[in-house]
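Posting for a labmate who doesn't have an account.
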Amino acid sequence: MAQEAPNSPHKGRSAIHLSPMEVPKASDVLANELRERILSGEFKEGTPLPSERELVLQTKMSRTTVREALRILEVQALVRIRAGRAGGAFVQRPDRESVARSVSMLIRGRQIRLEALHETREGLEPYCAQLAAIHRTDADLAALDSTNLAMREAGDDLDAFLRANIDWHLSVAAASHNEILAGFMTALSQAIFAATKNESFVNDEIRSATANAHRLITESIKKQDAEGARRRMGRHISVYADAVKDVEVRTAIPVVEDGQWEPELGLDPTEDSA
């Protein structure tokens, strides 16, 4: 049997030392368990979770802990809470709005520069248009045509023009059938609109150029001309970004509250149909 050396200064005491340990909150443990089972697909969308009382009995956790865990999942948009006798917590899967909320919080929390948003757009939107030309469906084309018509019929109504404009850009992103890109575009379009709505800037010339750019890009998407759609969208966004810089320099981007849709603005010089 091993014995401590007779000259040990701590005779009779263990030489093992442990560092302080952080124990996770019980509500976080429960929320993590439920989150993983939702994201893995084990709990299908629309499935009701056990009631608070049942969760308390099953987990041996307090009612306060269970409520806090459900609240965490509700904030993360993984469950929706319904009140009433037929209510409870129901599973829902993340969608593009979840991405939009996260990006919007980043923009607001970090006070992202307008220039950085335009740089991001120049990287994302041409690829959205390229994918849209490859994957678009008849329903996608109908949505693009509808927004183009709404833009032409907006007349002098600035808000109607801007709403049609954001609907078109988001319709292109939706036609890409990439939910992550669509989510990013949802958040970016809200931020850009909030920073650039300017009646003196959105004049008749800009409206005409924007409508023309949208028409040409839509034609490329209809023809499934992926390279043409990418090139035209890239020019559209690049020229718009340069025009905004000439109008006003901004250092922080305000973003509308979640769930409030606001339009963005677009600009493209008149280009030929090549």
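Reply:
Got it, the structure tokens are right above this. Residues 248-274 have pLDDT under 50 and may be disordered.
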